[in-house]
Design brief:
Shape: elongated
Number of domains: 2
Distance between the termini: 6 Å
CATH class of the largest domain: Alpha Beta
CATH superfamily of the largest domain: YajQ-like, domain 2
Radius of gyration: 20 Å
Number of helices: 4
Helix content: 25-40%
Structural class: alpha+beta
CATH topology of the largest domain: Alpha-Beta Plaits
Number of strands: 9
Length: 161
């Protein structure tokens, strides 16, 4: 029976490259001289740090631009609220959303069922498997989900006949 999987993954190599490019640009740009602005990739996510809220916003814009240029969806970023950390420094910490949570999986499953196509949806951990007798139904599901513009970046993998 034809099937495919719906996943939400982030290419960590592209994220690493975007963070490195952002850090290099911030070091070299004139308007960041003397601000001590940094962009670093940690185990928890991406940390942007600066000495003023305005420079922090500009550094975040540089980071987001580099991520978009490397085809990393901004939907995969979570958090990022600027907060003051001692010594007049400001910091924004972004988390990387990987996988589909149970709530999001149930919401996606309901959306697929509402399409009234002859397909079955199974939640398998942090991904969904969609099966149907006709390839056309599966392709309609993919088209419908792309049009939905869901809050997570979705990829469609393992399309099998």
């Amino acid at each position: 029976m034809p099937s495919f999987d719906i996943v939400s993954q982030v290419d960590m190599q592209e994220v690493r490259n975007a963070v490195d490019q952002s850090a290099r640009e911030i070091v070299n740009r004139y308007d960041f001289k003397g601000t001590g602005s940094t962009v670093t990739l940690t185990d928890d996510g991406i940390v942007v740090d600066s000495n003023s809220e305005g420079r922090l916003d500009a550094a975040v814009d540089v980071l987001k631009g580099k991520l978009v240029r490397r085809n990393v969806s901004l939907k995969s970023l979570g958090g990022g609220e600027p907060k003051q950390v001692g010594g007049g420094r400001y910091q924004a910490t972004f988390t990387l959303n990987q996988g589909i949570s149970q709530d999001a999986a149930k919401e996606l499953s309901k959306e697929i069922r509402d399409m009234k196509l002859k397909v079955q949806v199974q939640i398998q951990g942090d991904q969904l498997r969609v099966q149907g007798k006709k390839r056309d139904d599966l392709q309609q599901v993919i088209a419908g989900l792309k049009a939905l513009d869901f809050r997570l970046p979705l990829q469609y993998i393992n399309f099998r006949d």
